[in-house]
Amino acid sequence: MKFNTKYLPIVIGAALALGTVLGSLLSTPAQDQFLAKNNSKNKLNKLIDFINNEYVDSINTDSIVNLTVDNILSKLDPHSVYIPPSEQAEVAESMKGDFVGIGVNFYMYKDSVAIIKPIENGPSAKAGIQAGDRILYVGKTKLFGRKLPSDSLFAKLKGKRGTEVELTVYRKSEQKKLKVKIKRDIIPIKSVDVSMLLDKNTGYIKINRFAETTYAEFKSGLTKLKQKGIQSLIIDLRDNGGGYMEEAVAIADEFLKDKQLIVFTKNKNGETEKTYATGSGSFESGKVSVLINENSASASEILAGAIQDNDRGNIIGRRSFGKGLVQREMDFNDGSAVRLTVARYYTPTGRSIQKPYSHGNEDYFKESDSRFNNGELYSKDSIKVIDTLKYKTPKGKIVYGGGGIVPDVFVPIEIEHGSEGSAYLLQTGIVGHFVFEQLDKNRKAFTGLNYQEFIAKMQSTDDYFKSFQKYLFKNGLDLKLEKNKAIINRYITAEFARQLYGEIYYYDVILKNDAMIKAVLNQKK
Q: What processes does the entry annotate via GO biological process terms (predicted)?
C-alpha cells in the first residue's frame, strides 16, 4: 500500500540500495561479502564494528545507526523519514483505524488521570465510567500523583481484546471511590469526525485523515445523507495532513464519471501509473464543494485536485500545504520503519503540486507559517503562482502547479478565526482543557438541560469568555481576546456541547457561523 502523508517534523524528522545499507549495519557474513564490493557501504559497516570492538566507552550502537539513517534520509526529501520502534506502533495504530483498549478520552489534570468523556458504547461507558471520574489505579498500579506521560498511560489501559482490567476511580460528584471491572475491546479511531445535514439539501462530512477505514466511514456517512435527500455535499479537509492515497482515490471515485482521471504517479524511471474513476460512483451528479486550508496536505490534495481538475466542484478556502510526493513504507525486524519517497503524483491536468524543498527541511515545514508574514492568508492576491506552471481544466479554468492547490473561492483567515494569535490558539487543545475544568467545578449547572436550553444558557452570559481570558493569563498566554469575542465564544460553546452532548453537537455550533461554510451556501443563492 502506498503511503502518502505529511509526516510532521515534531514526530521525527531507499530503493533497494538504501535498504542494503541499513541492513548491513546489523549484517550477516553473506551481506558482508556483498558489501565488500562497495567501499562506501563497507565503510559504514566497518565503522560500527570498530566502535563496538574498540571504542573506549560502552556505546549503544543502535542509537548511532538511527542517527546515521536519519542523516541519510534528511539528504533526500522532507518526507523520506525513519520511524523508530517506539513511535512506529502508535503511528501504525492510528492509520489502521482502531486499537484495543477501554474507550475513554482523558488527560492529565494536575496530578490525576481525568476522564473527559467515555467513548459512546465503548467498554468504559458500558461499565459505568462517567465524565469527570479520576482513574486512581489500574489494577495495583498507582496513577495519581505521578504525572505519567500519555504513552505510559495508554500502555496501562491497552491490552488484548477480551482481557479484564480493574480500575479504581474517584467520582468527584459523589465524593467516593469505586472499583470497576472493564473488558477491553476494539476501539475505533474515527477518521471521519461527523456526517450531518447543514440544511435539508446540503450534507457535510469532515475527514481528519486518510486511514485504512476512511473510505468505509465516508461511504457510510454519504449513504445516510443521500437517504435524507441531499443535493449538495461539502467535504471538509481543513487541517487534514493526509494518509493513504488509495482512500482518497476511492472517495474521489464516488463523484467522478467512468474513465475520468483521478491521479497519476511517475517514478524515477519515468514510469507512469494512472488511476481512473469507475462507473460505480454514488454521487456523480450532485453539487460538491471541498474545504481546504494551509494544513491540508498529501491525500487531501489528491482529492481536492481530482475534483478541481475535472470541473466536478469548487475548492473553498486557502492554498493547501503543497505535498506531491508518494512514500512507500518498509519495515525492519526491530519494529522500526522507513518511509521512502518512491514517486511524484500529478493531478488530472498534469500538474505537480509539490512545493520546493531545496533549502532544507526546516525551511520547508516553516513555509506554511511564513504565509502569515507574506499576507497570503489574508488576501488571494498575495498567493504567488508560477505562470510557467499554468494548466487548463476541460472547461477552460486556469489552475496552477508548483506548490499546493489554489482554491477557486478564497476565504481569508482573519474572517475564519480572528487574529493570528487566536487562529493558532483555537488549533490547540487548550479550549478543551478549559471546558473540562469548568465542568469539573460545577457540572450540576448543566444537569437536566436539553440542547436548546444549553444553547440559550451559553448565549445569555459572558462569564465563560471572561474565565477563559483569565485561564490564558494564568497559563502564561498574554493574548487579548476582546476583538475576537464572538468567535472565541463560539469555540467555547462548541467544546461544551461536545463534552456534554457529543461530537455532532460540536459541529452544529462551530459551523453555524463558519466563513467557508457561508461561502459555499452563498453560492447556492
A: proteolysis; signal transduction
CB 361 within 8 A of CB 329: no
User: Could you give the residue ranges of the DSSP H alpha helices within 184-298?
Assistant: 214-227, 245-253
- Evaluated on CA atoms 181, 186, 191, 193, the torsion sign reads negative
Q: How many CB atoms lie within 10 A of CB 293?
A: 26
pTM across the whole model:
0.86
Confirm or reject CATH 1.10.287.90 for domain 192-325+344-416, answering yes or no: no
pLDDT (0 to 100) of residue 49: 82
**Location of C-alpha cell 500529478:** 346
pLDDT in tens, 344-394: 999 999 999 999 998 888 889 988 778 888 889 889 888 888 878 999 999
Residue 211 and residue 263 in contact, taking contact as beta carbons nearer than 8 Å? no
Where are the CATH 2.30.42.10 domain residues in the chain? Answer: 98-188
**8 Å CB contact between 94 and 156:** no
The angle formed by the CA atoms of residues 345, 346 and 349, to the nearest 5 degrees, is 170
| C-alpha span between 63 and 380 (Å, rounded) | 46
Beta bridge partners of 207: 192
Question: 129, 183 in Cβ contact below 8 A?
Answer: no
Amino acid at 306: A
- Please list the residue range(s) of the chain that carry CATH number 3.90.226.10: 192-325+344-416
Distance from C-alpha of 273 to C-alpha of 265, rounded to nearest angstrom: 5
Phi and psi for 241 in degrees, rounded to 5?
A: -80, 0
Per DSSP, the three-state class of 3 is: strand
Residue 291: strand pairing partners: 236, 316
Query: CA–CA separation, 322 vs 384, rounded Å?
Result: 13
Classify 262 as helix, strand or coil: strand
For domain 98-188, the CATH superfamily is PDZ domain (2.30.42.10)
Q: DSSP for 381-420, please give it.
A: GG----GGGEEE-TT--EEE-SSSPPPSEE--HHHHHSSH
Residue 101: burial class (beta carbons within 10 Å; 0-12, 13-18, 19+): buried
